[in-house]
Specification:
Length: about 100
């Protein structure tokens, strides 16, 4: 991935996790494993359209993967996409910082 694409992907990830409900959805799917949209919606007090909008943002950011399973879609976390955020945050880790001249 070139630098421009990487920056765009990082922006999408940061935008997706900016909303507390999306962070909670992401954490829930991570901890529980593959879940259907109905399973996810059942764990939150949001209306169905709100949940689907949050899922769409997470999928478009590449944080959730979808897989067809019969009539349902199973959502799983794409941990590789989170590496973009981890890499960016690494710039602020004093253990990783280059020595100053």
């Amino acid at each position: 991935m070139d630098a421009e694409a990487k920056l765009a992907a990082l922006d999408a990830v940061c935008t997706a996790i900016a909303h507390p409900a999306r962070r909670q959805i992401l954490l829930t799917v991570h901890l529980r494993g593959a879940m259907t949209a109905g399973d996810i919606a059942g764990r939150f007090a949001h209306a169905w359209p709100t949940t689907t909008r949050h899922l769409t943002v997470l999928v478009e950011a590449g944080l959730l993967l979808t897989e067809k399973s019969g009539r349902h879609r199973l959502y799983t976390v794409d941990r590789a996409r989170l590496e973009l955020l981890k890499e960016w945050l690494g710039w602020f880790d004093p253990r990783e910082a280059p020595e100053k001249a």
